[in-house]
Design goal:
Blueprint lengths: L4 E3 H8 L9 H18 L9 E3 L17 H16 L11 H11 L6 E2 L13 E2 L8 H9 L26 E5 L2 E5 L23 E3 L8 E3 L4 H5 L25 H6 L24 H10 L6 H13 L6 H18 L13
Antiparallel strand pairs: 1-2, 3-4, 5-6, 7-8
Length: 354
């Protein structure tokens, strides 16, 4: 024992072979709690040391008959979100939390970081079993940062868990806060509606913390959010108004016309130190007016919708380069749409293009 931490190996060695036939109910429950504490410490609540678990979780295991009524998934996310915040501090080199979940999320959304797909994996198994990890020799932090700074949109999977909406559990649309012990973290589902195949609008205002101290290390990181218990107790009343999002995306990363201008003022477009590399703080560009006009017009078409969508995808993916290919791709799309409509297509200023 070190303070409130106990070594996982100690739990394993002391309780692995217990549980004889003549054990009492009290002994069986004690051993069950030790086993569950070990599971929590090796999965959803891993410490940054990797070999210890906090004994503070034992009070969650007092009544073994009600464990199935706990929102373990929400607690896992709240814990992981808080640890991601701590890991963002410049003086932090280690991270706690369920990193297996994070490592599974990455290949599902970023194709360039995928391992080998295991086609023999049964569909009933968790998503983590789909990918066989591969090592990337020579890919240090600087190299990975460079890859992300120039990552093409066509290699991002915005809609990884495609399935009919009627097959999605209603709680998936929960919009509020998540809680784990004293940790409260906002859950901003409205920022990622493209995962449901919808057009991304400007989301609602974020929840303001009641107290915030970021600092330079994980120890000095402290953000306190108000916990609205009624949100979780009556989660059915706090769902994303999915009925209001009636527009299905024409292409995977489609957003409303005003979204990118809003997003550019609230994001870090590139990874790195702006003091050393001025390009880090430079915006990555917004969608050209002509292309936005194309999107709105393409929505009214049916005959060549898929062809226009493919050309749009290529055009938007190359928008940062400012290359002649971008202008050509947009012109191709305008031509397709002009032929479909039977008249000329005009840009945002009303000038005839086709």
């Amino acid at each position: 024992m070190e303070g409130s931490l106990v070594k996982l190996e100690w739990l394993r060695s002391h309780f692995e072979l217990l549980g004889t036939d003549d054990a009492s109910d009290e002994e069986i429950e004690r051993e069950a709690r030790a086993y569950l504490l070990y599971i929590l410490g090796t999965t959803i609540f891993t410490s940054k040391f990797g070999n210890k678990v906090s004994t503070s979780y034992l009070h969650l295991l007092r009544d073994l008959t009600c464990l199935d009524r706990f929102a373990w998934g929400a607690a896992c996310l709240a814990f992981l979100y808080r640890e991601l915040g701590k890991a963002s501090r410049v003086g932090t080199s280690q991270m706690a939390g369920y990193l297996t979940l994070l490592e599974t999320w990455v290949p599902e959304h970023f194709t360039m970081f995928r391992g080998t797909y295991d086609r023999t994996c049964p569909a009933a198994l968790p998503l983590a079993f789909r990918w066989v990890p591969r090592r990337h020799p020579g890919r240090d932090t600087t190299r990975i940062r460079d890859i992300l700074n120039h990552y093409p949109l066509t290699e991002v999977v915005f809609y990884p868990y495609a399935r009919p909406r009627e097959h999605i559990h209603t709680m998936t649309y929960y919009l509020g806060s998540l809680c784990f012990l004293s940790t409260v973290e906002p859950y901003y589902l409205g920022r990622v509606v493209r995962q449901f195949g919808l057009v991304q609008p400007i989301p609602s205002h974020p929840i303001r913390p009641t107290r915030r101290s970021l600092g330079r290390s994980a120890a000095s990181y402290s953000v306190v959010y108000p916990w609205a218990e009624q949100q979780w107790a009556k989660w059915q009343l706090h769902l994303l108004p999915i009925a209001e999002y009636t527009t299905t995306g024409l292409y995977p990363f489609e957003c409303t016309l005003d979204y990118m201008d809003w997003y550019q003022t609230r994001t870090h477009p590139r990874l790195g130190d702006p003091a050393r590399d001025p390009a880090v703080g430079a915006p990555r560009g917004t969608l050209p007016v002509a292309l936005l006009d194309v999107v709105s017009r393409a929505r009214d078409l049916d005959g060549r919708r898929h062809r226009a969508s493919h050309i749009l995808t290529q055009a938007v993916a190359d928008r940062d380069s400012g290359s002649p290919e971008l202008r050509g791709a947009i012109d191709q799309t305008l031509t397709v749409l002009g032929q479909e409509e039977g008249d000329g297509v005009r840009d945002g200023d009303g000038n005839g293009i086709v």
